[in-house]
Amino acid sequence: MPDLLHLSAVTPTHLPHAAPTTLTLSPGECLALTGPNGAGKSSLLRIATGRERPATGEALFDGSPVHEDDPAARARIATVMDAPAFYPDLTVREHLMFVALAHALGDEAPGTVERILEEHHLTAQADALPSTLSSGQGQQLLLASAFTRPHDLLVLDEPEQRLDAAARDELAGRLDAHKKHGTAILMATHDHALAAAVADRVLEVGGV
């Protein structure tokens, strides 16, 4: 199966002496990046999505150089990265509806949003503002936003953070289901159980 994502001998700009990283990812496959904080995992995720230019090497998405401002790539790559970024004046439901409509779900948007709210245990908080959510609920909203929109590639930076054990198990099951539907998943994680449950391959990041 052709590679959907290919990082070829890339190094982050702030880690010029790090060992170059080469990785490939095919549809329906999950690759987990592990390693200590500061090793460059998040930078590799940003390179994979075109948010950061590598100091060396290149990043290809579906055979073409990936750029964050490329509409074709943006339409096919969903991310959970960096600090939470919510629309402060929109309720949880309105936030997800905005995401759904922005990605052309059309008439399917209301039903999709209600399903996602239920799956992420946010139905009771649907009319609340993001600022009122607990840290775990906020993480669920981040994940819900990514799962609401269509995607061929999921790029996740420590998706397990702020989730309790039960929610992490549900996340593993959800990611596995997306894999079976052909989604490629690149994630950085400190949760070895999550990596073991979902990842087809694990890449340790941090060599020099």
UniProtKB/TrEMBL annotation:
PROSITE patterns: ABC_TRANSPORTER_2. It holds the Pfam family ABC_tran. The keyword ATP-binding applies. It comes from the Bacteria. Residues 2-208 form the ABC transporter domain. GO terms for molecular function: ATP binding; ATP hydrolysis activity; transmembrane transporter activity. Keywords: ATP-binding, Nucleotide-binding, Transport. InterPro entries: AAA+_ATPase, ABC_transporter-like_ATP-bd, ABC_Transporter_VariousFunc, ABC_transpr_CbiO/EcfA_su, P-loop_NTPase. GO terms for cellular component: membrane. This is Phosphonate metabolism protein PhnK. It comes from Streptomyces caatingaensis.
